[in-house]
Structure formats: C-alpha cells, structure tokens
Amino acid sequence: MDSLGLTSIFLACVDAGSFSGAGRRLNLSRSSVGKAVARLETQMSVRLFHRTTRSQSLTEDGQLYYDHARRAMSELEAARNALASGRREPSGTLRVSAPLTLGRHVIAPLIVRLAATYPQLKVSMSFADRPVDLIDEGYDLTVRIGPTTDSSSIAGRRIGRQSMKICGAPSYLARRGKPEAYGDLEAHELLLYGRAGAARGWGLPGGQQQVQILRSVGRVRFDDLDALADAAAAGFGLARLPSWLVKSRIEAGELVEVLPQDDRSTYDIMLLWPKGPQMALRVRRAIDLLAAEMPAALR
C-alpha cells in the first residue's frame, strides 16, 4: 500500500477515535489497521499515536500530520470532483470562522448564498469572538475586526469597514436626557461589551486626533452584541454598536442615535487565509463574493 492509502487509514483512525472504529468504516480488521499505521510511522520515522491497552491519542507530530493531511485530502477530493463533473466549479468543504454577531447577521447569509449557487460545495462555519489559528485549526478563511497580527504564512485583504453608533431607547433618553458632548457620557448608564469578566471600554475621538477610552460601572454587561442591542432597546442605557446591527432598530424608532461618530470610530474588517502555492477554487469564490458584497451589507 502506498503512502496515500496509509494516510487515508490514519485519518480514519483519528476520525473514528479508534483502530477498531476505523476498521469498521473501511471494512478492515483491527490488526490490518494497526499494521498500516505502524508502517506509516516507520516511513516517516515519527510516532503518530500514544497507545495504551484502553485508548489512543495523537502525539504532537500526529496532530501536525493530521491537520496537513486532512487539508490535502480535501484538496484531492475537490480535484476529483472537478474532473468528474467535467466543469470547473467549487467543490469540497469550505471552512470559515467569523465573529459571532457579524458572522450570524452578515457573513453566514453570503456563504449560504455561495453554497446555493454551487451544489458541489459543502460549508462548515464556526462563530467565535476570539482570534482563531487558521492553520492549526484547519480553516480556509477567517473574518476579523480591527488590526491583525502580520504573519508570513497568512494572506488577507480588507473587505469592508465597520462604523459604530452610540444609541439609546427613546424612553431612556426621555428619562436621563440626551448627551450633547462626549463628556456628558460619564453621567450616563453605559452598556458594555466584555469577555471573560473584563468589560471593554469605549474608544471615542479625543483632541488632536487622539482616542480616549471611556469606561463606566454599568449594571448591564454582555459578551453578545445582540443582547446589548436588546438591553438598549429596553431602556437600560446607552450602547455603542455596529451601524449594520442597529440600522433597522433606528429606522423602526426603537433606538435613537446620539453623538454621531467620525472616521476615527471605524474598524477595518479583514478576510484572512493561509498562503499556499495554489488557492482552492472554493476559497477564491468565497473571497470574491465577500469582497463584493460586504461594503453594502455593512452600511
């Protein structure tokens, strides 16, 4: 058996969680599976699994090989699908990560549209308000808001800009008054976004193009922007939220914008992907769609 066949058995072992489970999937005996994995380890001069009588787990080398082999197998599957179909269209699985609220409201509908256009395309999408490791976690694309860390192994492009609006419910403004300057905010109840128990302050324009960070001891804090918008609409205080998220609420009269923001209160939205000698067609189509549609979706 060649290296490709041995690698397929190795991947099945990881996916099934055991040699016996892989054997059932592949219609092989547990002994045959074990011998195939041992042969692969000999060929590469590394140990891929920690083995005990009751369990198995990947070694560090095994995890590294699995991540790269899984991506390579996905590319081979896409190539076979393209040749078999007789036409050049995206196929295989597109793996995307995006921030929770932006992903749910803006990114996901566009990716679903892409999948509807190409029947051979599969999509696996994850939402998380944390920076993901594209390569280690096996993503084709990730969307990030704000500055990114440069890396020689990551490519990217800006696909839009997110502007922020400070807003509150008419009932709150009637009760507490409408702030006329940034300094007035210190006397208001601010609804804050935060993760892991730490609230994130508001970055507001200051003098001479500087940005001041405003924090307040608010009674309401969330790690979800939809919940912040709901709390603001319920009259609990002022919230600083993306314009695309509150646009419909402002138009419906649920929220009122105060203290219009300027260009210093906008953030780049970046699309990142692993560098490689050749880009999969499904990734290229996703990049093109997001770059074309995001600016309008963010207004």
Automatic annotation (TrEMBL):
Is Transcription one of the keywords? yes
A single GO BP annotation from the record?
Answer: DNA-templated transcription
User: Gene3D superfamilies under this entry?
Assistant: 3.40.190.290, Winged helix-like DNA-binding domain superfamily/Winged helix DNA-binding domain (1.10.10.10)
Q: Per UniProt, what is one GO molecular function of this protein? A: DNA-binding transcription factor activity
Q: Which InterPro entries match?
A: LysR-type_TF_proteobact-type (IPR058163), LysR_HTH_N (IPR000847), LysR_subst-bd (IPR005119), WH-like_DNA-bd_sf (IPR036388), WH_DNA-bd_sf (IPR036390)
The HTH lysR-type domain, residue ranges? 1-59
* Record-linked PROSITE patterns: HTH_LYSR
Keyword annotations for this protein, in alphabetical order, are: DNA-binding, Transcription, Transcription regulation
Residues spanning the signal sequence: none
What the record says about family reads:
Belongs to the LysR transcriptional regulatory family.
- Protein name (Swiss-Prot/TrEMBL): LysR family transcriptional regulator
